[in-house]
Amino acid sequence: MIAQTTTALENARVKLLFSRPIAALAALLMAVPAQADALIDNVNGITLDEDGDVIHFTGLLMTTDGRITKLLGRKDKRPEKLDWRTDMHGKVMLPGFVDAHGHIMDLGFRSMELDLSDTHSLAEAQAKIAAYAEANPERTWILGGGWDQEKWGLGRFPTAAELDAVAGDRPVALTRIDSHAVWVNSAALKAAGITPATKAPPGGRIENGILTDAARLMIMQAVPQPLARERDLAFIQAQQMLLSKGITATADMRTTLDDWLVYRRVADKNLLRIRILSYADSIQTANRAAGGSPSPWLYDDKLKMGGVKLFADGALGSRGACLKAPYADAPKQSGQCLLTDAQLKNLMSRAAMDGFQVAVHAIGDKANAEALDAIEAVSDTYKGDRRWRIEHAQIVDPADLPRFGKGSIIASMQPIHALSDRTMAEARLGPGRLAGAYAWHSMLENKVPLAFGSDYPNDDFNPFHGWVAGFTRADGAGQPFGGWQPQERITREEAWRAYTMGGAYAAFAEDRIGRLAPGLWADFIIVDADPLLATASDLWNMQVEQTWVGGKMMWKRQ
Amino acid sequence: MIAQTTTALENARVKLLFSRPIAALAALLMAVPAQADALIDNVNGITLDEDGDVIHFTGLLMTTDGRITKLLGRKDKRPEKLDWRTDMHGKVMLPGFVDAHGHIMDLGFRSMELDLSDTHSLAEAQAKIAAYAEANPERTWILGGGWDQEKWGLGRFPTAAELDAVAGDRPVALTRIDSHAVWVNSAALKAAGITPATKAPPGGRIENGILTDAARLMIMQAVPQPLARERDLAFIQAQQMLLSKGITATADMRTTLDDWLVYRRVADKNLLRIRILSYADSIQTANRAAGGSPSPWLYDDKLKMGGVKLFADGALGSRGACLKAPYADAPKQSGQCLLTDAQLKNLMSRAAMDGFQVAVHAIGDKANAEALDAIEAVSDTYKGDRRWRIEHAQIVDPADLPRFGKGSIIASMQPIHALSDRTMAEARLGPGRLAGAYAWHSMLENKVPLAFGSDYPNDDFNPFHGWVAGFTRADGAGQPFGGWQPQERITREEAWRAYTMGGAYAAFAEDRIGRLAPGLWADFIIVDADPLLATASDLWNMQVEQTWVGGKMMWKRQ
């Protein structure tokens, strides 16, 4: 029935009428570019070309709707006919960063919650809680986390009564730094229907306002779902935080239907300012959001539901990562692979059948091997440019590394994790199993397409930090000295490439974003120094002054 | 934080550069209309003006993106500078119809199901079921309805075995014409977990493949939810059906979140061809779809979530309509008002607080009175142009009629119902209570804003049928002779107005659609005769040749 319909221009009855005066005008108009131009001039422009090599330019010419038409060198003549121009006074212009793995809504919600990670005593925490409660009278629950009674020197857990003293009748639920316990007040216990007679579920404990492990859920289920407007606000907050660090596009690695609805609502109201490469939390969500195939690029390429996220295992810190051999620090445990081989292949097939890209979370070496097995198995059926992704690819058996390259499987890695995890990873794995851990140099050696991200809000999303971690395996202060497992360093340019072009390629977006070149969107940042000449320490501390997406300034340092 | 961001054009550093050659060109361009024009010429154009008076024209000038710029009379000079023109060879052009009350997805799904309403024997029905099963091998369940064992002359209900004989192992569920019973086969019983030992719930009966009333749900819950692509297909089907009858915009009067997702998916893929004025099935859905306020007009004004639908009572036929006095044909029943006064006011307040329009389903005179009570009560708080709607306003106590006018409350009525319901309505109400029944003339007398629709798929959505019913109170064959309750006839023009401008106004869309005038969208139909000169019978049978939405031909008779 679609064939029955037609646009007016296709209508066979339509006659094109070019009267003479129109033809004359048309000829004149031909001399003008079809799309008006804008120039951002006098920049110290640095980008990568399509081969990943560094190139320099001094002016960026774009259409007024934000697509790059030309990069200009110092000697290139500037067009006279311009709709507008901006002089950047010699500042450094770089392509915006693409974070290949993040959780937008989690970042937004966490940023709106109470953060106790910087408190050094119970009294200090209590004061902060009281202040937060007063400053946020509209919140029906006070949520937050980051507390650590060890750091407080308390020698015991805090109590419900100590929360009641400062938070009154409003329910409060504050997660411990390690996420394994939640500290609540009497109002929260009441809201959750927990009385002194309530028994904790197996694997959990309820004790004087502290609920551990399996018992935590009893509280979390009682927390009201956020309202649509609260979700929208959390998103706006996260978007602002990401833009302020120079991230112009981000994968969203477990988009729920409610998350998707937020992105739609915000974009419908013309408030979407960052590009979201969305990977659904399930095939059901992908289908509901996008239908029987990935969504088109929506809102001038600012939103696309392109794939599905699957989980092969858990995390290393909590010993949920699925390992081939037992944990060095828990010889009876090897973690747990969450899906059988058949389940993984079935889920992959269902996604791939509808043309959705598949991104598999795999931390442990066994989980990575199983993800590789499954990808290899289904690749026979689902051919073509599928760009199977493994998220984290954190601990890989060196014997499995070539399999990434052979299958052109994208390794979506988080360089900053190497710094946050290194002590823990050494404890969990022992010295003998670090050869394939956080091994981005080995990935490149094996010709693996590499994409960098941060896994925010679980780690620091400042891409300059990740960039430095990528080529130094150390932080901005040079710690650890010489870099952790320094054989896995890559070059500064390679790390930059993974954090820009790599993320774009990983989301089928390399023809739109990831570098500055004609035909791509003018997504760029203005920074205070040349990142290729800066010391690692200066690069770590680099400040973003402006962030532009699609030729529009979306954030500016005040 | 939004204040921190800015578009490039707003950027303080931007300098507008108007060099001399550009200025000269700009001056030249000023002489040309900013937006190129298209002409649909040589039409017998008839529309209503903003006062609802009939006007004629012979050419429609519009921008190439589909907005009307001018209606041209016979003597008006045609512009020479045109992007394209079409000659309609004198055919009649009318504004597209706006159906003020329909259910798009129900129409689509019903159209894809098996319809047994035209079968005259069990054997004929069995043959039709077998043919449908064979023609639709991909359907995991065979769903449909419309059967009537009385019409078949069967003298008993059909049985599961009689279905098994023709439908094999695939579950089948076929609803009786009155919706009070479902006929299933053994596979459906098995899928629903119903065995001979299963007891029917109170108010229901299970007997040899027939499940009545409350027992029906046991089957319906076992029917798998449609896949996203099945929903999309159902939508495309419904859209096509509506366009083919000249409906260019329709209210969707109980949009679920899944329905909303369909409209988004279809529109994202550029396949939305009709305008949808969406009223959510709940405040929750409204918030999830649109946020804390109505959505903007999306996709060139083709979709908007603007309101919420509430239910004050049920339907007259099943004696669910809430009456002030008992049913004439069931003296112990008065129907049931579904919400208390407090509930109705609370729901209205919640919707109105977020700026959503409220549309209350009210059939019986008591339900209408309660809806009016609630609207009058909340109007004190939620002032301004709220356009409270009562859907159906079917049986209204004549004493309550002036209250519609006083509150400028929209009566959203379905003229075709008067024809389908008249015998049943006389039985339910008796002769003494028809004064305020289907009383659109009285509504206009009381200066009530009137919007016409069809309540499809529960009734015939052909707007020409509704139009004729509106001014004749009879069908195309003139039955009943002289019209039913003819004192409630309105003029041909008034009925037309209610089916076009009335529906637009009822959805806050009168500045976009509902008639043909500069600034509004070019939503029009081409028909085979002048509807103002045609006999009622010819108007009833009028054929739509083309349907255009936003200046594009979206449907054409083959």
TrEMBL record, chains A, B:
Native species: Hephaestia caeni
Domain Amidohydrolase: 87-552
Pfam families: Amidohydro_3
Signal peptide: 1-36
Swiss-Prot/TrEMBL keywords: Signal
Gene3D superfamilies: 3.10.310.70, Metal-dependent hydrolases (3.20.20.140), Urease, subunit C, domain 1 (2.30.40.10)
Protein's UniProt keywords contain Signal: yes
Top-level lineage group: Bacteria
Keyword Iron listed: no
SUPFAM superfamilies the record matches: Composite domain of metallo-dependent hydrolases (SSF51338), Metallo-dependent hydrolases (SSF51556)
InterPro entries according to UniProt: Amidohydro_3, Metal-dep_hydrolase_composite, Metal_Hydrolase, YtcJ-like
Full protein name: Amidohydrolase 3 domain-containing protein
GO molecular function, one term: hydrolase activity, acting on carbon-nitrogen (but not peptide) bonds
